[in-house]
């Protein structure tokens, strides 16, 4: 808050009442990422007045939302306009700022390098070929674009694709103290992949315990906060291999996951396998943050006709049946494949594009669910009046 703002006790009862109405109006606004009003969230709402003709307002959310300042400012001004149409504050200018503060959840004892990570999000699918890795890398980039410090771990031990997707092929991570990896910086992310440790043509021909050991080593022997200004990552996104095997169980047992994002297509067969993924995470007490329905709609590049090639409504039905939520629907677009194959995924290649906006929507929705889980018992928001 600005030190020049007068304390509300210095104002007349009429002014104080009107400022309280402004706060209540803002508190009633729905947060799009959670579909809940601010007064049902642990969001800080501040309202101040300079004693002349300027009202200062702000909202602090618990998930990254840097792209939403203008959207929220317009909503707040529109909602508060009737409140300020008359009375002693009529004609005042209303300034609005949107902030975010990502809280850390206490998960008990963790390996030392993972103490630098606030939240770990697994991106999983029941089967291959649904665009899980593409979704994971764009989700990580979208979280970073919204203002978070983000790491990306390629846990697909048998088919590591992160070096290709981020154009870091041939890169080798720095080693410290003979046993710790320094994450490879790539397009604003702190990354680690088995692909950095193997040659391009060398497959990981390993049995389950060997693969699980490799994942555990990358998780616990990578200095995740090394290159971050405050020494902490807000989120570590883990691109899981498809299926429900050793790697998934190892991750669930070794670290406290903030939650899992399940990627599927509307196709019935993909949905059947995605359900297995949901059930697996539930069995190991990992919250499912939501469903991402990939390849939901194809737009013809010639005529613009849109068609749900793989079916429609499957993600919505699955979310309803399993008491989770549909985080977003992504199109079947050649540009997504071309950009990712070319080493610059969509969110990095076209940050202001329509598809990047969809990935950012998914990122905000997933991060908001992490926030809700972290602050489930915190109660109502704190409203400061000055």
From TrEMBL:
ATP binds at residues 126-133. It comes from the Bacteria. Keywords: ATP-binding, Hydrolase, Iron, Iron-sulfur, Metal-binding, Nucleotide-binding. This is Iron-sulfur cluster carrier protein. Binds and transfers iron-sulfur (Fe-S) clusters to target apoproteins. Can hydrolyze ATP. Homodimer. GO terms for biological process: iron-sulfur cluster assembly. Belongs to the Mrp/NBP35 ATP-binding proteins family. SUPFAM superfamilies: P-loop containing nucleoside triphosphate hydrolases. GO terms for cellular component: cytosol. GO terms for molecular function: 4 iron, 4 sulfur cluster binding; ATP binding; ATP hydrolysis activity; ATP-dependent FeS chaperone activity; metal ion binding. The lineage of its organism: Bacteria, Pseudomonadati, Pseudomonadota, Gammaproteobacteria, Cellvibrionales. Gene3D superfamilies: P-loop containing nucleotide triphosphate hydrolases. It holds the Pfam family ParA.
